Amino acid sequence: MSAPKAGDRINNFLLEELIGTGSFGQVWRARHHVFGERVAIKIPTDSRYVQNLRLEGVAIHGLRHANIVRALDLDPYGDPPYFIMELVDGPSLRQVIDAHPSGMPIAASTAVMRGMLQALTAAHAAGLIHRDIKPANVLLASKMEELPRLSEAAVKVADFGLGRAGGITAASIMQSGSLLTEDGRSISGTLAYMSPEQKEGKDIDARSDLYSCGIVLFEMLTGERPSGSDMPSSIRSEVPGYLDDVFRRCYTRLDRRFVSAEQVLTALQRHPPMVPRMVQTEVGLSCPSCRSPVQRRDQFCIHCGAQLVDAVPRCAACRAYVHHTDRFCIFCGNDLRVKTA
Q: What is the DSSP string of 171-215?
């Protein structure tokens, strides 16, 4: 199977630029030869990947969700075979994490997590398990410099080529790889985000995707994948405790894991992201209202009472204000951590 080149015509589109490559195929940016509309086109360079291409196109054709890359056209029997999909004008999550070795902004990390979970909620409801959640398969319709203001609507989950019914083994995933992963990283990257039951070749359910989401969350927050029993906050102290709990309930044995993407979303929605409104001065942080000195972890100014964060969490039992790192309410003793199922 010959490799495509710039200027080749696929259906009504002209290939412009190679934007992704892997062991079994390529992803090209292309434009409509009349209207100028730009799309992304997957083209296998190995005949063994044609079946995966067909499966991916069929899998996401019926999925209509803002957080899932939209399928536009598919011909697995063409010469060459191709899959045309929505072009996401922005970096992959892999590129963003690599650009933030100490961790992404916490608000951006939670926005990406919410977007991924929204996509998986729709996919799981349709009976489709992704099976290959990792940073290379998450695209962001946003510029790198806009990361602090990232919205969950800008998050797009791609590469459902392994998302099919029936059992699948670690060996078959290693052979398939990912079109969006750099050469030489597809196998190690895929295995690094795989749930234990998936590595063992067992039948899996939606909880396998959630295990992978936990690894991605840890990597977004810290710049590295989890090792041992470390929590995100043990590596990066400003990570709020509730994100430790969300990670813990994803990255755990099957019977203790969250049971659905919706349940993880609920856990995240209990704790709105803490976005500081403090003013940076030459001598430190100050209250934007009275200009008195404050600390980064303050939620209210102790001098004038001004709220310093976008949202302050409250205890579900007594409705008292609590700090986002608190594990128990100091007023009534209520457990503020994410409850187990």
A: HHHHHH--TTSPTTTHHHHHHHT--HHHHTT----HHHHHHHHHH
Q: How far apart are the C-alpha atoms of 174 and 178, rounded to whole Å?
A: 9
Task: For residue 162, give its domain range.
Answer: 93-269
Domain endpoint, select from 269, 292, 311: 269
Split into its structural domains, the chain has a count of 2
What's the CA gap between 124 and 108, in Å, rounded?
24
Compute the C-alpha angle 253/216/328, nearest 5°.
Answer: 65
Take residue 238 and report the two structure tokens written for it.
């400003």
Please report where in the chains the tokens 């609590």 appear, as a residue. 322
- Shared domain check, 135 and 67: no
Would you call 102 exposed, middle or buried from its count of C-beta atoms within 10 A (0-12, 13-18, 19+)? Answer: exposed
Q: What is the pTM of this model?
A: 0.71
Reduce the DSSP state of residue 153 to 3 states and report it. Answer: helix
Residue 242, number of CB atoms within 10 A of its CB: 21
Per-residue pLDDT of the chain (341 residues; tens, 9 = 90+): 677 899 999 999 999 999 887 767 889 999 999 999 999 999 988 777 787 778 777 777 778 899 999 989 989 888 899 999 999 989 999 999 999 999 999 999 999 999 999 999 999 998 889 989 999 999 999 999 889 889 999 999 998 765 543 333 333 433 344 433 333 333 334 789 999 999 888 888 999 999 999 999 999 999 999 998 899 999 998 898 899 999 999 999 999 999 999 999 999 987 655 444 667 777 788 887 677 888 888 887 787 666 677 666 778 788 777 887 888 888 888 888 754 43
Q: Which residues are catalytic?
A: 132
Q: How many CA atoms lie within 13 A of 48 on its CB side?
A: 10
- Cβ-contact 248, 278 below 8 angstroms: no
Whether residues 78 and 124 share a domain: the answer is: no
